[in-house]
Amino acid sequence: MENRDKKSETLSQREKAQRDFLELKKMQRENADKAPKQPYENEIKPVTFKEKLSNFWYHNKVSVIVSAVIIAAVTFICVQCALKPAYDLTIVIYDNRYVSDMYLENMSNYFKEYCDDFNKDGEVNVMIVNCTYEAGKSSAQYQQTVQQKLQSLILTNKTAMVFITSEDGLDYLQGVADDLFFELPGKDLSEDFYEKIETYENLKLPQGLRLYRRNIKGTLIENNETAKKSYEEAGIFMEKIK
Cβ(54)–Cβ(46) under 8 Å? Predict the structure, then answer.
């Protein structure tokens, strides 16, 4: 009996000690929350501008780098758009005989002599879109890519009203359209054209190329303002070309 009483007393004392300990911890937490936070004893605060800059870079370098990359990309795009010329005329060359891209600048400069400053920006710029391939040599995939590019251009580009092509190209393009695609008969490109364009001895232009104006009468774009304006400008250009 005496042993049980002692055991019970021991348990009571242990429980009391545990309650006292928990109460003490609670009081310590409450006091810690109320007490003002003190800086670390060994904390070194940046004082000079160089130290502050170094500290800022250490904590924010990732966000700074990402921001700089985004700003640089946006700036590059804006500059490219600002430097891109506004074209007065778009000419598409399509043929199953390849025309080197090296001649596109020569063609642009040649046709500028017969083109007006339609957009009134103080300069004349002519865009040449190359849709040519070499039949029998170009891969089937490349030919398909060229023809898809051409068809997309016909469907979506309402400023491309002048085309350069041959008899074979004419047959193909007339087959693409539901109606007469070009206003016939078109105009032959003169010897003067070949002499001024062919500046590379080993790169010959296809012979028999002709200029055509696209026909928009009776088409879905007949009443489109951009298409009508480009169609009229193409007519002025065609009248001046030799």
Answer: yes
Q: Which two tokens stand for residue 156?
A: 């979506």
Q: How many Å apart are CA 73 and CA 76, to the nearest integer?
A: 5
Give CA–CA dist 94/133, Å, rounded. 8
pLDDT tens digits for range 17-28: 677 667 766 776
Look at the block and give the residue holding tokens 């030919």. 143
- Contacts from 114-122 at CB under 8 Å and sequence distance 24+? 114/237, 114/240, 114/241, 114/242, 115/88, 115/89, 115/237, 115/240, 116/88, 116/233, 116/236, 116/237, 117/88, 118/88, 118/89, 118/233, 119/86, 119/87, 119/88, 121/86
For the entire predicted model, the pTM comes to 0.64
